[in-house]
Amino acid sequence: MNDFDWMAELNHQIKLKTQRKVAAELGVSATMVNQVVNGTYPGSLDTIRIKVEGRYLNSCVNCPVLGDIPVNECLENQQRPFSASNPQRVKVFRACRAGCPNSKLDNTARTQRISVAGDAEERYSLDDQLEYCRRMAGGDPLKEVELLRRELSKLANRFNAHQWELRHKKR
């Protein structure tokens, strides 16, 4: 898709409706839509391009959690703050920050790579987990120690569960 496609569609939607209604549908300000149409918008056009392509041109991406979704919905999911309101939302939040190829988040907003499908064969990467703890601690040594303590506790639980399975499968 080239720039003309989404700009032409944006102008077409404005002719059918108003700039204000189109802006509301896209979740941006009417001022932003006006500046984009007039070629005076000072920022990057990527965000509005993605919103137009997803909303009006049916451009989709394959989300590892939700399947095929419009690109604007993908962008909205990336921008949502964490909420444990439901398990699917937690999975989407984690996937957006765990190396999803569709993610536009910078590396500081990402966490470690995870297997969203829960692949039991996935290997544990010490280096990835240490880097994750450092990033999440943000330079606070006490927070880093706490995150490392939690990680060690999680590993101990996994190890003990594995040992229990080995003992009881032999019998």
Features:
171 residues; mainly alpha; two-stranded antiparallel sheet; 2 strands; elongated
What's the Cα radius of gyration? 22 Å
The number of E-state strands comes to: 2
Report strand %: under 5%
Number of helices: 8
- What class, by secondary structure content? mainly alpha
Order of helices and strands: HHHHEEHHHH
Mean pLDDT: 81
What is the terminal-to-terminal distance? Answer: 61 Å
Low-confidence blocks of residues: 110-121
Helical percent range?
55-70%
Largest sheet: number of strands, sense, barrel closure: 2 strands, antiparallel
Shape: elongated
Going across the biggest sheet, name each strand in turn.
1-2
Written account of the structure:
The chain has 171 residues and is mainly α. It has helices at residues 3-16, 19-26, 30-38, 46-56, 71-79, 87-96, 126-137, 141-170, and strands at residues 60-63, 67-70. A two-stranded antiparallel ribbon has the order 1-2. The longest helix is centred in the C-terminal third of the chain and has 30 residues, at 141-170. It is elongated and about 70 Å long. It starts with a helix and ends with a helix. Mean pLDDT is 81; it is low at 110-121.
